[in-house]
Design brief:
three-stranded antiparallel sheet; 24% helix; alpha+beta; 10 strands
């Protein structure tokens, strides 16, 4: 795929396409990339061209990692776990969720949508990355 990335411009990406999804009015192509050993999530309208090649399929060893987070308020009340999430603890005001993440960008997007109702418990590197993004957003909005 020749992809026009908003961050790094046009680049060639090799993926094994897995599914399409519609989110926030845009279509996304999900696919596995052997070089990065992870699932990518690409906006369809940013794909400039597609070259189909037949390759011998390698065993898929997708990088996933586990994240635990706490939800409170309305987010805790309305939360419905996806197939990759499970509720570890639940009480009247909050819940603890474990998520098996195969796409960090998508996970961070979803997490930010919870706003102040979400606290990342672990791992620390994801917690720090989200805190940094929040600080950058606050800085932009305070200017």
């Amino acid at each position: 795929i020749l992809y026009d990335s908003p961050n790094s411009g046009e680049k060639e990406i090799s993926i094994k396409a897995e599914k399409l999804s519609l989110e926030n009015g845009s279509f996304y192509l999900w696919g596995y990339n052997d070089e990065l050993n992870e699932t990518l999530y690409l906006r369809l309208d940013r794909i400039k061209s597609i070259k189909v090649i037949n390759i011998k399929e390698k065993s898929k060893n997708n990088k996933t990692f586990e994240v635990k987070f706490k939800l409170t308020g309305g987010s805790a009340i309305s939360f419905v776990p996806s197939e990759f999430e499970k509720i570890l603890e639940k009480n009247d005001t909050d819940l603890i969720v474990q998520s098996n993440v195969n796409n960090k960008f998508k996970f961070i997007q979803n997490t930010l949508s919870y706003g102040a109702d979400c606290i990342i418990i672990s791992p620390e590197n994801i917690r720090k990355e989200i805190i940094l993004k929040l600080k950058m957003m606050a800085k932009i909005h305070n200017n």
